């Protein structure tokens, strides 16, 4: 059986299942993916120098298929030793088929490569958007094993058209986003409450 891409599944079985689950009749009213932003924060104490910036740019290009834009500080902040115009991050914004292809690989190949992976937290931002933080960029199969000093983290922001978190979460689940099981989450919450000492009256 041929593998169905996320692009095809979003317009086929996922749309059909969402209509039933969310009780929406109009397909155009279903929550949809809008864009994905891949962001790398550049810390001067760990990530500095032209060579490191070029390495980050090349890695993001391999991971996302697009060349990143380097963001610069708008003003100087003396406490953080940041000068105006200093490079503070690298950003890639994905839309359309490039976005769908990236998310397809992220869910199917990349996240399962994380050591001792037990699922992602299911909490969204309250506006139907979801963020994933990754500590090690080398979990992407396109990247050759780097030196320890070259490892950097990134944030992946998934923006949807959903009006609330419940609709967006339903969309992400149908896509195969590996959220932590609700049962395990409840048991973990109960354990943490039981371990918390009660206040004496």
Characterize the structure shown:
The protein has 201 residues and is an alpha+beta fold. The chain has one domain: 50s Ribosomal Protein L5, Chain: A (2-Layer Sandwich), CATH 3.30.1440. The protein has a five-stranded antiparallel β-sheet. It is globular and about 55 Å long.
CATH topology: 50s Ribosomal Protein L5, Chain: A
> What is the mean predicted local confidence, pLDDT?
84
Assembly state = single chain
- The H-and-E topology, N to C, reads as HHEHEEHEEHH
Strand content: 15-25%
Class by SSE composition: alpha+beta
- Sum up the overall morphology in one term: globular
Helical fraction equals 25-40%
Tally of separate domains? 1
Number of helices: 6
The CATH homologous superfamily is named Ribosomal protein L5
Rg: 20 Å
Question: Characteristics of this structure?
Answer:
201 residues; alpha+beta; 50s Ribosomal Protein L5, Chain: A; 5-stranded antiparallel sheet
SSE blueprint and pairings:
Blueprint: H1 6-11, H2 13-22, E1 33-41, H3 50-64, E2 69-72, E3 87-94, H4 96-110, E4 130-134, E5 154-160, H5 165-175, H6 182-195
Antiparallel strand pairs: 1-3, 1-5, 2-3, 4-5
Helix pairs in contact: 2-5
């Amino acid at each position: 059986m041929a593998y169905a891409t996320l692009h095809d599944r979003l317009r086929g079985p996922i749309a059909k299942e969402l209509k039933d689950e969310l009780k929406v009749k109009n397909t155009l009213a279903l929550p949809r993916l809008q864009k994905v932003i891949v962001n790398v924060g550049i810390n001067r104490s760990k990530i500095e120098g032209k060579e490191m910036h070029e390495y980050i740019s090349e890695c993001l290009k391999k991971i996302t298929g697009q060349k990143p834009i380097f963001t610069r500080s708008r003003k100087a902040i003396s406490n953080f030793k940041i000068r105006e115009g200093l490079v503070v991050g690298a950003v890639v914004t994905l839309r359309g088929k490039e976005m769908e292809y990236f998310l397809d690989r992220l869910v199917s190949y990349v996240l399962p490569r994380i050591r001792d992976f037990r699922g992602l937290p299911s909490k969204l931002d309250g506006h139907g958007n979801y963020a994933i933080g990754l500590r090690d960029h080398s979990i992407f199969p396109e990247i050759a094993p780097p030196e320890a000093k070259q490892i950097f983290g990134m944030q992946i922001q998934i923006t949807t058209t959903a009006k609330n978190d419940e609709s967006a979460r339903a969309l992400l689940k149908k896509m195969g986003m590996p959220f932590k099981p609700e049962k395990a989450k409840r048991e973990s919450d109960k354990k943490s409450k039981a371990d918390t000492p009660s206040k004496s009256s």
